[in-house]
Amino acid sequence: MVTAQSVVLALLAVFLAISTVAPTPTNTTGFVNCLVFHLPPGIIYTQGSSSYPSVLEYSIKNLRFVTPGTPTPLVIIKATNTSHVQASVRCGARHGVRVRPRSGGHDYEGLSYRSLDAARRFAIVDLAALRAIRVDVRSETALVGSGATLGELYYGIANKSARLGFPAGIGPTVGVGGHLSGGGFGLMLRKHGLAADHVVDAVMVDAEGRILDRAAMGEDAFWAIRGGGGGSFGVVVSWKLQLVRVPATVTVFTVHRPRNRSASDLLTKWQQIAHGALPRDMILRVVVQNQDAQFESLYLGRCRGLLATMAKTFPELGVTRQDCIEMSWIESVLYFAFYGTGKPLELLLDRGSKPDRYFKAKSDFMHDPIPKNVWESTWEWFLKDGAGLLILDPYGGRMGAVAPSATPFPHRRALYNLQYYGSWFDNGTEASEKHMGWIRGLHREMEPYVSRNPRGAYVNYKDLDLGVNDSGGDSGGGTSYEKARGWGESYFKENFERLAMVKAMVDPSDFFRNEQSIPPLP
Length: 522
Prior knowledge:
18 strands, Uridine Diphospho-n-acetylenolpyruvylglucosamine Reductase, domain 3, seven-stranded antiparallel β-sheet, alpha+beta, Vanillyl-alcohol Oxidase, Chain A, domain 3, five-stranded antiparallel β-sheet, about 30% helix, about 20% strand
């Protein structure tokens, strides 16, 4: 925990350090030569390398950032061990080239592999090869490389034990590093909270190229990396996770209720029961698309328990025995990831291919129910050309039992998280404007009903509409704390100031910097 005395002493030390050290001028040739000297052949890809485009696009999930005009990294380093990360950071610090880590490439705004400013020269340290997973059934822990995907983690756990799991997200191609760095939540959040709540240790390369575990980095930095967003404090290369017990049998269902079958009434009732009335062993989320509300549930138990719960709390939804499917926990992972049953476990090892669509997302946190009349008017948005979808993930349970300051993620007391998502396949300007306009328009429409002062957002659903940091060029001034507060307090609320304090302690020169990285508190 940060104490007043430790903050004062640390900030005094930081002030003395940064007031006497000028920014390092950018020397791109020196940077590349440094990498070539310190790294083995075959892992460095410059913009002149024939394989550069394929290596860059391998982990990109959004076609919006695969365009000739997108500023891309000077160099990509495909690290295969921690020493490669160290050398990359040290060469970058020595020659004024900042380093951005990339694990799964799901960053919604692509900040792990692109810049908004062509003058901002940077390199990628790609962590995809650092994906070893070691599960210890006896201690119920797992050591996981940041480059592993959630699918690979789930597969590794299931191969060791049918009674252990991990409470992380649905998407199997999401990188472990980025997911944990933003907090990370999934279908067991009401039972077990955030994925980051179960991190018990980590190994990070800091701005000086040192390898630090939890004890060496200190509790302040360890607090910051478990939800403060990726790419701000160092390059986390591995995580030690506390796994959770799962029952032998879980139950899932997916039911559709169209607008003309009381969907607005059901959504209104759902807001009243999904957060508090349902047991922690159950989550009931909703996907709203076209003129349909799709109710999806994972229940950590058998069908009879689920049906009894629904009959007591939400009989209006009309869930029947025929809707229930009993399965193992790992089968439920496949069910929600790939929309069906009978899928082979090996699908979880597919890291995905080149991007096939454009997308934009935004997020909100709801602390009060949306009135029924607002749901009625919202249906009209789904009749518009370019309409996307809404995803409603309820909180409550374990989420509300943990203090908002326990990790950087501050939104634990929300009723639910609301995500706006739009995707399209047409590269034309008109199509992009249509879909982007839908997302932004509905987001504006919802403003009276969402969290405020500040309006909340989830850092793992990155949104540059909230604001960006000062550019600073290659060696210019650092990030403005006051300007960063515009987006930072939306993601982190009161925790943003503490994150900036930690940044000043661990990276006072602001080496790990991007358009929405945490600035050092001045």
